[in-house]
Amino acid sequence: MKDLSDAVVRLQEVVATSGLVEMNKLVHSTIETLKERTPYGEFDDTLVRHLWDEYCWNYQEGADLLDEPFDDLLAAFVDKALNQLGTHALICMTAYSHEQLGSDFYDEEPEPGSIDKEVIRHVCMDKIRVAAGIRNLDIIGYKRPFVIREYVYADGPVFSIYNADGLAPHIDVLIDPDGDLDPIAEDIADIFLSNLSAECEHPDLDEFLESYNDEIRAMLKAKEIIPALEGVRRELLADLDG
Q: What's the predicted TM-score (pTM) here?
């Protein structure tokens, strides 16, 4: 009987391990679904891009009265995903969830091979809350004007005289992978060329800059400014979504 009991324990461990894999898939797919949804606009002074940003902001900074509505919404997304899964995945995730919650969670020991969507949802939502709680949301919140310079590493001649805090009004564009960087680059080029002309105060240079303004501007943008801004974007998105 001991051999049989040990075999059952080993089988349950294998099932639970498979359940962890399935649970991680469920957590990931639910978060990706939230990223595809438009935010409800509950937080005016933020740059939330999607429902996942909004859920995370509420979890970290929001009012308690919104916790239940957001959790109800999250539960609905999890339930919808669970209803699309097969029996094998549900059994494995149930076993894993039972293992995570421990015996204190139940009045009686769950049956091996059982399916309990409620307990799966409970564990899944806990994992999603953990993911929401560890995100760095400063760049989309009220601290964004004060932290933007932390993401600017460019040290070329153009950015050397540019105040990185000037990027704060453009954070919404910078955190949009498809956002147009050209207007920001134009502003930076204007500042650089104006400073260059003022510092040199040489008529020949002024004439040169005026004659070849478009060409110089295009070169500065292509060689330094746009690549630097793309680097800022990568840093921002890596910190925000990484």
A: 0.82
237 CB neighbour count, 10 Å cutoff: 16
- The 10s digit of each residue's pLDDT in 113-170 is 789 999 999 999 999 999 999 999 999 998 888 888 888 877 777 777 777 888 889 9
Alpha helix ranges (H) inside 134-201: 144-147, 171-174, 182-200
d(CA 97, CA 42): 32
Grouping H, G, I as helix, E, B as strand and the rest as coil, residue 47 is coil
Helix-helix angle 213-220:182-200, to 10 degrees: 120
Token pair for 62: 């929001």
Helices marked H in the chain: 2-35, 51-61, 67-82, 87-101, 117-133, 144-147, 171-174, 182-200, 203-211, 213-220, 226-241
Q: Where residue 82 falls among pLDDT bands split at 50, 70, 90?
A: very high
Token readout for 221 is 């943008």
Quickly tell me which residue has 């894999």 as its tokens.
Answer: 21
Residue type, 63: A
> Which own/partner pairs from 122-129 qualify as long-range (CB within 8 Å, at least 24 positions apart)?
122/97, 123/23, 123/93, 123/96, 123/97, 124/23, 124/26, 124/27, 124/30, 124/78, 125/71, 125/74, 125/75, 125/78, 127/23, 127/27, 128/27, 128/30, 128/31, 128/74, 128/78, 129/59
